[in-house]
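Appendix C reproduces, verbatim, an entry submitted by the partner laboratory led by Prof. M.T., so that reviewers can inspect both the input and the predicted structure.
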Amino acid sequence: MCGIVGAAARHNIVPTLLEGLQRLEYRGYDSCGLAALKDGGIIRLRTTQRVADLRRQAQNLDALTGICHTRWATHGAPATHNAHPMISRSQVALVHNGIIENHDELRAELLAAGYTFDSQTDTEVIAHLVHSLYAGDLFAAVRLAASRLRGAYAIAVLHTAEPGVVVGARAGSPLVLGQGHDGFYIASDGLALAGAAQRVAYLEEGDVVRISPDAVQVVDARQRAAQRDWHAVEAYSGAAELGPYRHYMQKEIFEQPRAVADTLEGIATIGPELFGDKSGQLAGTRRVLILACGTSHYAGSVARHWIETLARIPVDVEVASEYRTRDSVPDSDTLVIGVSQSGETADTLSALRHARSLGMTRQLAICNVAGSAMMRESALRFLTHAGVEIGVASTKAFTTQLVALFLLALTLAKQRGRLAEHAESEHLQALRHLPVALQAALATEPQIIAWAEAFTRKNNALFLGRGMHFPIAQEGALKLKEISYIHAEAYPAGELKHGPLALVTDEMPVVAVAPNDALLDKLKSNLQEVRARGGELYVFTDAGTRIESSPGVHAIRLPEHYALLSPIVHVIPLQLLAYHTAVARGTDVDKPRNLAKSVTVE
């Protein structure tokens, strides 16, 4: 998705900017652009074509200071006038990754102050805001502007009055510093700086940075001077993207706010066009069949609750490897959905092809790889934008699948007249706030590390959930068994008394997902059944549940209940629990035994 590269050096940085941008093309984008300081002014180049077209435009340009960007449309269509960089009054140029949630109120304020807008983007709001706050110090102006922004962002900014300076800031989106032989760089991914920088440093949440050819200055979220550790690029080679993380899985867990934001980019309204439907296939759907394996199957199980609740369409969720082994009853009005991270999962592909052979040709692929077989073979498609997922145990692919499936539930509901305009707006706002909610869930990591120490001594675990959180409990159990090799099972909490309660002892930790929803009181009764048998409870809860830590009960509270989207938030601490338990047990987290990332055999 969106990518940023910026540079301030004592040599022509245009080739370096373009090379870095080309390295970020794998993210996907619909426009790109570059701004450079030259002869006291800003030269801006933009295109809706590939980076190669930008390179052609810039072939005669040389400059010592510049920023560039690849954009996937969020606010405003993919058009040249919406492409970054954005410029304010010919003095400020700015590029931006992320979503600014309060852009409407800031836009109104800036319009009242006399600023005009040439794009539909939230990014132009930031450019004008920085300009309005500029009083001779770009570093100070960006710090002031950042304090006014709500949402997730990474930005890079230039000002004509300060040649040789680039200022960056980040909150919820990554930004990396690079140091070369005669200059400094910033980028959204260390991959972009390979070959240009000899060492890199990873900015932390809330950091604002000023780079020049000779120096770098960082202040943290509390406006205090900060130092960030440098790492030699060569030491990481291909693994340079790990940054401050120990494993790819940990990195990918923490990338989920960005992955969700990227998946939502460009979505301003709900409709069948999100899924490439130009012929009304979704509108004629009378039933839904979801085919998937493993983690993707659990995403489909959550989606069943959403689709049946919002759209009132019956949903079946099948393990893809089992679907072809029985005589199913075909229905041509069924929407068949294949869900896969790689799009090459053999069982899922075979199940989709089997459904087609039965006359069920109304098919939708939800996948993270654009050129995969599943995407090529399906009439309808939704590409999630999780980015490359290297860890075998899927994390960000799962949460982005859930986002896609929730969008589908809203689309089906809208087509049936079950989604009022105000409800659509509220759901979209909740989706846009998800990256912030996920950041809050990630902040529970220190507490979860303490829990993991206790889990390392266990050989078995039970996971409990109710309703749409039961599949999340299943996903939590799967993650734990995949990478820590602890035997873990998940049950609907109401099923405890029908057998699993016989397993409960003080040696069997019981993990419960307990959000503040309509099933909370029933779940609390199930948890009491565990305590009455001497079981040790580990409960992930949220605001208003009144579940507190006590002897035999360990509780971690997320700061807010997130209603229908709560499963996406609650899976984060379960991923962290599995990860830190595996680390404590010394397993190979990214390459668990006997497993592969993409299962291409049946």
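The mean pLDDT is 90. Additional entries are available on request from the coordinating office.
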